[in-house]
Amino acid sequence: MNNTHLIFLIITGFMVFTLFYSCESSSSGGGSGELISSFNSSKSHNTGSNCMNCHVQGGGGDGIFSVAGTVYDEALNSVLPNSIVRIYSSPNSDEMPIAVIEVDSRGNFYTTANINFGDGLYTSVEGATTEIFMESPITSGSCSSCHGDSTERVWAK
Ligand code: HEC
Ligand code: HEC
């Protein structure tokens, strides 16, 4: 093997290593990657269930969600894809939201963004026509721990 071949081999080896390493570090293994729902995406599952039964530290779901749930239509029978969930620091707000989360094609929304609920944040859901606010503050983004359990499902129109 001459020197040109050796250099070629070293360079190729380095490129393969770099490629592998960068794929490895951008994957979401163990919940370290960023995940956020978007319009028309269908990567989610378990529509209507409490996502945070699993998508929490040590819970086994891929990604630790700060906010997640499912939006239904007004009749509460079918999901309402492509609606929008927002998180605000004050109630009925027209200020800039802390987070804007697009609802995917399964009616689900989720984000791994770091959101500090502190003493409480406010939330709304907007469908095709109306932004509906939840009156009371929330200290958790686990929407389906209440909605679909102790209170009716999250809905919009
Ligand atoms: C019973 C446990 C469980 C529940 C409940 C659950 N998940 Fe998951 N989820 C998992 C597991 C495990 C994976 C990884 C394997 C897979 O894709 O099925 C996953 C994967 C995902 C992924 C793909 C992540 C990626 O890396 O592409 C998304 C998105 C997701 N879940 C969203 C949700 C949403 C939104 C909810 C609630 C509506 C939810 N999950 C409820 C266990 C759960
Ligand atoms: C601790 C329980 C709880 C959590 C967590 C919770 N909610 Fe609520 N939500 C309620 C209750 C109770 C009401 C009705 C009273 C009110 O508006 O404060 C409500 C009302 C709403 C309404 C207004 C519905 C209407 O008929 O006017 C929306 C929209 C809403 N919630 C969205 C959400 C979203 C989105 C999340 C997650 C980011 C969430 N909620 C988390 C309990 C909860």
UniProtKB/TrEMBL annotation:
InterPro entries recorded: Multihaem_cyt_sf
Lineage: Bacteria, Pseudomonadati, Balneolota, Balneolia, Balneolales
Keyword Transmembrane helix attached: yes
Source organism, top-level taxon: Bacteria
TM region(s), chain numbering: 6-23
Protein name: Cytochrome c domain-containing protein
Organism the protein comes from: Rhodohalobacter sulfatireducens
Keywords, alphabetical: Membrane, Transmembrane, Transmembrane helix
